[in-house]
Recover the amino acids of this structure.
């Protein structure tokens, strides 16, 4: 399912400058698309705009061939899985129960889980390496464990598109790599994956295309090789860098200068 934003502009109440200023992007099915930028550059606001959780001052969002406003809420939940940066747990709930919530858009309020639903839930738990903690209360999890459980819930939705805001921020290197490999494989199987991240080198390694935001505006968009240029990154991040090609991965690598 294609994700498309055209000239998206968002201004928060009381703010002088827009958080997003005429930002456009187009994410095709089967693409892993990364959004980069420093703190406060508008990355999380872009995610909210694409999901319709923040009002647009101007611009338009399309999912597939339809405007965002034409999608019913339940229909949207079946098609798009979202993992935000933060999500408080308001009541006691076990890991499996939280992951099973990903099936709610398919089941409805009264229909019980089928054997297929249970298999999808189990597979999502395994894919995110949280099956062994299925009976634990979510409140007992570390930040990284909680993040993996939330990704598992999104996968249990069987969405056509995944939108994730810093999904590997709290993960150790093993689980970070496993999640990125999982997202890469999902894109290779036809899923649309939009990933917001601070990890420049990993974005260059796994993403097909990259959007760089600076002060709410598009600073660059293209393939990792097209975007990872020293003059672009230095202007956006305000720090001198050197860009090299990694001998092992063949992807651009960013090295901050002292």
């Amino acid at each position: 399912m294609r994700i498309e934003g055209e000239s998206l502009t968002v201004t928060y109440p009381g703010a002088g400058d827009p958080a997003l200023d005429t930002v456009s992007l187009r994410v095709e099915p089967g693409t892993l698309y990364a959004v980069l930028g420093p703190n406060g550059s508008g990355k999380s606001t872009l995610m909210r705009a694409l999901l319709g959780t923040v009002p647009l001052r101007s611009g338009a969002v399309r999912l597939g061939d339809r405007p965002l406003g034409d999608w019913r809420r339940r229909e949207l939940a079946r098609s798009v899985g979202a993992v935000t940066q933060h999500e408080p747990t308001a009541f006691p709930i076990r890991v499996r129960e939280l992951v099973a919530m990903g099936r709610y858009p398919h089941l409805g309020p009264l229909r019980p889980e089928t054997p297929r639903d249970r298999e999808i839930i189990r597979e999502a738990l395994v894919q995110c390496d949280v099956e062994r903690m299925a009976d634990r209360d979510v409140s007992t999890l570390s930040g990284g464990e909680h993040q993996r459980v939330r990704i598992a819930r999104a996968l249990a939705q069987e969405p056509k598109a995944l939108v994730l805001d810093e999904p590997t921020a709290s993960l150790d290197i093993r689980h970070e790599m496993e999640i990125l490999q999982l997202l890469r494989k999902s894109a290779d199987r036809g899923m649309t994956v939009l990933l917001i991240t601070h990890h420049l080198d990993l974005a260059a390694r796994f993403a097909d295309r990259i959007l760089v935001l600076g002060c709410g505006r598009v600073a660059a968009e293209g393939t990792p090789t097209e975007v990872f240029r020293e003059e672009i990154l230095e202007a956006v991040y305000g720090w001198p860098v050197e860009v090299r090609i990694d001998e092992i991965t063949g992807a651009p690598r960013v090295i901050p200068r002292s």
